[in-house]
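re: ur msg from earlier - yeah i can do the flavin-adenine dinucleotide complex, just paste it... oh wait u already did. ok heres what im feeding in:
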Amino acid sequence: MKYGIHWFRRDLRVAGNRALAKQCHECEGRVLGVFCFDKKFLDRDDFSINRFQFFLEAIVALKKELQTIGSDLLVLDIGPQHGFKELFKKLKAADISLPHQVSWNRDYEPFAVERDQGAEDLMKSYGVASFHERDHLLVEPHELEKDGGGGYQVFSPFARKWNQLVMDEEFNSRVEYYKKGLRYLDQLAAGKADKIFKLTWDKLWEGESGPEDVLNRYVESNSRKVSVTIPRSGSLAALEQLRSFRDRMDDYGEKRDIPSIQGTSRLSMYMKNGSITTPMVMAELGLEPFGKKETGSDMFLNELIWREFYYHILARHPRVENEPFLKQYKDLEWSNSKTWFDAWKEGKTGFPIVDAGMRELKQTGWMHNRVRMIVASFLTKDLLIDWRWGEQYFMETLLDGDLAPNNGGWQWAASTGCDPQPYFRIFNPWLQGKKFDPDGKYIKRYVGELEDLPAKKLHSPINDHKIYPKPIVDHKKQREIALDVYKRAR
Ligand SMILES: Cc1cc2nc3c(=O)[nH]c(=O)nc-3n(C[C@H](O)[C@H](O)[C@H](O)COP(=O)(O)OP(=O)(O)OC[C@H]3O[C@@H](n4cnc5c(N)ncnc54)[C@H](O)[C@@H]3O)c2cc1C
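and the outut:
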């Protein structure tokens, strides 16, 4: 019997899943899903229990969805190399044929690129065909180059070229493709999705025992350690989130920098898991390339292009995972005070807007983009702490923690990255607070001990509070020191 396996990774959805759809067509609906928990990934220093829970719940939703439409997902407690070997061994022992082909969707992180090359070699060694498809990026790194070749290192010309490409029929049809996926999701939500698949793992094993499915075990043990409220996960939740943003999109330009309100889409954590993707978002919202950044939708699309930009940078320059994009900052003289770092993590720096952001992160697993920029600038420029410390802490705590945009955001703030904030532009945390949280609503939501203070007192040093700490540094002095340190490194 000809059947296929789709190996899910960060493409946790059925709607608009190109590799899965291709398999479904070629194997006439006989396609099964596999997910492998890779110990190498789970043992990373920046592993986050909270983000993992959100991820696990997306897998639970996916498994349920696959069962509803006639397939199933097998979740293995072992990396793909050993996982597939084990699976193939058991299939052979049960005298069941190996799959006709195994598919997956492309990933661009250095770890993933190496893993996927290994998987391709493994499939070859078993005589099993394999293929992969484009997934969460609309334009892949190899598709967008400067006229003379090579990738862009500045965002504006990158974005121009990206827009130009997306006007092209071929790229535009990619967005169109996802409309079908969105219609399918509507049917699924209404309980009317067709049984598009025709094979389950139980049916394949025909009474023989296959490998143990560990999903429930993982969910149970991880959920006991979670420290924030986990939002609803999965494609249907992502679509709901997207649609709730549609009505607010016109105001995006005006409201996206105000952390006390929901002015942004809050889609990032769904995009991280592939519950929804950039082209799906564009298809649903009807986003058009080459807007003049005047409307909310133009500005929103611009942010999605930033996301693609950082993926292209990571794919073309994998070294940025561990070192500054701008090599002159390789030996920058960081102070790296552990005491200051702890105060920053705990939200006890004495700078209310910074502390509110860090407490929002700890309490909810999320932080507003404007505040991410403020706390990152504060850590790297005011405290002169290595951006990699901040980057890792964000990965340990963010529900949307994602290597490419996180690394890009940190290196932007630290002025070490590709097209970063110039080193001499140092955010003044007092002015930032005053500008973006003038009435202190956001600050007071997370820094409860400042609740009774009048708003105007929140944007200058508070030296006489019983509980709230005095500022741990003097911004003006630290600014001068930072300028000096950066100048010396240049
Ligand atoms: C220091 C720092 C660390 C960051 N770490 C991450 C991270 O780990 N994961 C992550 O997804 N984003 C990260 N960002 C980018 C940005 O803060 C988040 O994507 C955004 O806050 C998510 O909220 P949203 O979905 O409501 O965004 P919206 O404003 O609604 O934007 C829509 C989408 O565009 C993308 N996007 C928005 N802003 C950026 C940006 N500056 N760079 C790249 N993509 C962007 C995201 O996918 C986002 O979901 C970081 C930014 C900074 C400054």
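cool cool. Residues 327-489 form a domain with the DNA Cyclobutane Dipyrimidine Photolyase, subunit A; domain 3 fold (CATH 1.10.579.10). ping me if u need the other ligands too
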